Amino acid sequence: MEQRMTRRQVEQYKERYKPGTRLFLINMNDPYAPVSSGTKGTVTLVDDRAQIHMRWDNGRTLALIPGEDSFRTLTEKEMAEEQDALEANSPIIEM
């Protein structure tokens, strides 16, 4: 059951989870079509109900619901590892 957030709580979520923030999904409490645990994604926005809208790395766009879903922000180390992997896989362009 979704809990109602105060305006202050919503603003705190908007401040904490700005667009571009990378999150790791621990568990999604969705009986119909959850995103798989362990999936990473990027915050696109936090709405006025404090739902955290995501662009998941697997292509999905399902929002997180604080208090219902379990997730955490990626650590600096995890983000550095992602960046290193991107750089290692990017093509070299010679001019």
Output the keywords.
2 helices; alpha+beta; 95 residues; 4-stranded antiparallel β-sheet; elongated; 4 strands; SH3 type barrels; 23% strand; single chain
Can you walk through the features of this model?
It is elongated and about 55 Å long. It has a single domain, classed as SH3 type barrels (Roll). 25% of the residues lie in helices and 23% in strands. A hairpin with a 5-residue loop joins strand 2 and strand 3. The protein contains two helices and four strands. The chain has 95 residues and is of the alpha+beta class. The mean pLDDT is 91. A four-stranded antiparallel beta sheet has the order 3-2-1-4.
Beta strands, count = 4
Global mean pLDDT: 91
Helix content: 25-40%
Taken in chain order, the helices and strands follow as HEEEEH
CATH fold-level topology: SH3 type barrels
Number of helical segments with 4 or more residues:
2
In short:
With 95 residues, the chain is an alpha+beta fold. The chain is 25% helix and 23% strand.
List the helices and strands and how they pair.
Elements: H1 7-16, E1 22-27, E2 40-46, E3 52-56, E4 70-73, H2 76-89
Antiparallel strand pairs: 1-2, 1-4, 2-3
